């Protein structure tokens, strides 16, 4: 019985330490503290330089787009919604909701595409990568760098 326990413990240790990005067993509280920052979006098209930042704070997310008019005057367009964290044993999610705008934000997302469960693929070292499947079965992804 003791040998079986040691074997099971060893296998669990190998499993947990063998993961490249060990987000397993992270609590919702810890993930929430990691996401509560201002992030600059760098995808879906990394070749484009979006002037779009996302701020996550206390269950609210604010998207700010900087717009430079042809006259050289800067203005900002702000969209807001809500977020919540859902942590499971092997996966973690950000649920985005309450985005109610018409058209697209600068990075190309409609409100109906944002309002869904996004898998947290990576949230570490100043990088956040989210992935989700839209209503048409298309995989969408967003990559952010900490601002």
Explain what the structure shows.
The chain is of the alpha+beta class. 19% of the residues lie in helices and 42% in strands. The chain has helices at 2-17, 28-35, 111-114, and strands at residues 38-41, 52-57, 60-68, 74-87, 92-97, 117-124, 127-133, 139-146. A hairpin with a 5-residue loop joins strand 3 (60-68) and strand 4 (74-87). It is globular and about 80 Å long.
Helix and strand string, N-terminal first?
HHEEEEEHEEE
Care to count the β-strands?
Answer: 8
Instruction: Calculate Rg over CA atoms.
Output: 19 Å
What multimeric state do the chains show? Answer: single chain
Count every helix, treating DSSP H or I runs of 4 or more residues as helices.
3
Which bin fits the share of residues in helices?
10-25%
Lateral strand order in the biggest sheet: 1-2-3-4-5-6-7-8
For the structure shown, list the relevant keywords:
3 helices; alpha+beta; eight-stranded antiparallel β-barrel; 42% strand; 147 residues
Topology:
Blueprint: H1 2-17, H2 28-35, E1 38-41, E2 52-57, E3 60-68, E4 74-87, E5 92-97, H3 111-114, E6 117-124, E7 127-133, E8 139-146
Antiparallel strand pairs: 1-2, 1-8, 2-3, 3-4, 4-5, 5-6, 6-7, 7-8
């Amino acid at each position: 019985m003791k040998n079986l326990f040691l074997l099971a413990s060893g296998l669990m240790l190998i499993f947990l330490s063998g993961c490249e990005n060990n987000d397993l067993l992270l609590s919702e509280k810890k993930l929430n503290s990691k996401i509560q920052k201002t992030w600059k979006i760098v995808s879906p098209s990394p070749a484009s330089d979006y002037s779009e930042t996302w701020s996550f704070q206390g269950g609210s997310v604010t998207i700010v787009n900087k717009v430079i008019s042809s006259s050289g005057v800067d203005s900002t367009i702000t969209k807001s919604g809500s977020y919540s964290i859902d942590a499971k044993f092997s996966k973690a999610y950000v649920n985005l909701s309450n985005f109610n705008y018409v058209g697209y934000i600068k990075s190309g997302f409609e409100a109906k595409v944002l309002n869904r469960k996004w898998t947290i693929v990576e949230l570490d070292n100043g990088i956040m990568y989210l992935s989700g499947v839209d209503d048409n079965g298309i995989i969408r992804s967003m990559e952010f760098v900490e601002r």
